[in-house]
Amino acid sequence: MILKINFDASFMPNSKISGISVIIKNEGDKLILKSSKRVLCKNSNEAELRALNKAIGYINDRQLKNLLPKKCHIKIYGDSQAVIEISKKQKKMKGVEISLMRSFINGLKVLNKNNDVLFSWIGRKNNAEADREARAALSK
């Protein structure tokens, strides 16, 4: 099974409120999950990381419950170069809450163990659907 994941965040520095979104589709471009919500974050990198962490948690949880098969080919797309790079290297990111980083790295290890995962940076224009959802979450 091939899964395509797009994630994004929209950060408002004055209020520290972010809208995060995750969109997961299968190889036929059929929607599996579209989720967005408002969260408090220290900075835009943390917001982007929270969005990706939500996607990773969703996949890992569904595979643990046998609702999704293991050994999927997962393509993860985001428009934050910093988050894509730390994901590829499974490294920590400065300025991000330590508990979020632990959760992210642990979830990432499980995801990579059970699947073939590819992280790719894409421009905002190519991440438009996730961007729209993240912005819409700010107005909720």
From TrEMBL:
<dbReference type="InterPro" id="IPR002156">
    <property type="entry name" value="RNaseH_domain"/>
</dbReference>
<dbReference type="InterPro" id="IPR036397">
    <property type="entry name" value="RNaseH_sf"/>
</dbReference>
<protein>
    <submittedName>
        <fullName>Ribonuclease HI</fullName>
    </submittedName>
</protein>
<dbReference type="InterPro" id="IPR053151">
    <property type="entry name" value="RNase_H-like"/>
</dbReference>
<dbReference type="GO" id="GO:0003676">
    <property type="term" value="F:nucleic acid binding"/>
</dbReference>
<feature type="domain" description="RNase H type-1">
    <location>
        <begin position="6"/>
        <end position="136"/>
    </location>
</feature>
<dbReference type="Pfam" id="PF13456">
    <property type="entry name" value="RVT_3"/>
</dbReference>
<dbReference type="InterPro" id="IPR012337">
    <property type="entry name" value="RNaseH-like_sf"/>
</dbReference>
<dbReference type="GO" id="GO:0004523">
    <property type="term" value="F:RNA-DNA hybrid ribonuclease activity"/>
</dbReference>
